[in-house]
Design brief:
InterPro entries: EcsC (IPR024787). Pfam families: EcsC. This is EcsC family protein. The radius of gyration is 19 Å and the shape is globular. By secondary structure, it is mainly alpha-helical. The longest helix is centred in the C-terminal third of the chain and has 38 residues. Helix 10 packs antiparallel against helix 11 and helix 10 packs across helix 15. Helices cover 77% and strands 0% of the residues.
Amino acid sequence: MENLEQLEKHLREIQAWEKDQKDLWFWEKLGRIPFKILDKMTPAFLQNKIALLVDELGSYIQSGGQYLINEQTMLQKIRNDSSFHNIFSISDIGQIPLEDMIALSDKLQNERVKLATVQGASTGFGGIFTLAIDIPFILGMALKTLQEIAIIHGYNPNDKVERIFIVKCLQFSSADIVGKEAILKELSSMHNTNHAAEDMISQLQGWQEVFFTYRDQFGWKKLFQMIPVAGMIFGAYANKGMIQDVAEAGIMLYRKRRIYEKINELDKQ
């Protein structure tokens, strides 16, 4: 297992990544503007689809809904790909080496990015009409990917606290500089107080806040995806970037938690 020096090295890498997150590329800032125009251009059927999706995803924090993944399937994957095979529950995963968690996370991220790219290209072919299919698909994939990342690091996404953490990871991936700093502060104190989870629920102000922040990040990428055929290129690029960002945020934030827990375990020895 890892020693303190190895864990601190990985922690410094995460801290460097967090520092890099405190700025947005110029075109990403511009990318948030066109959705104000897009709202006026979007047909009623697509607006209704988005409204239904907001209501549907609103139940995720409370119950997980249809977005909960199959725990046993994920445990089997980890048993197959990890150097530790005596894994019978999610709590067992917390004891595997950090290097195994990193390898499992990288493999998952690559698989999900490829799937999202193909999905974006296929739905981009039909322009705005298939965009109604693509938006719920990519949001559902983001939630499932984050749940899988949680399990890889030994955390149970069936717990309400973890669903809140997952939503915060989703928020982080599309937040601005101020938002990222606020979320990092919230997550760092999440397990320090008994009421941290309840505090974060009140701060979320419902799923709508997360959904619309997340949707705005699509920006001009999804605007161009509305063009039939040409939208294939933009759809593939947009979905690839979205899942890549979400997976990276989840991996780094969950890895940070696990490192701190491993350090605490070493301190107790």
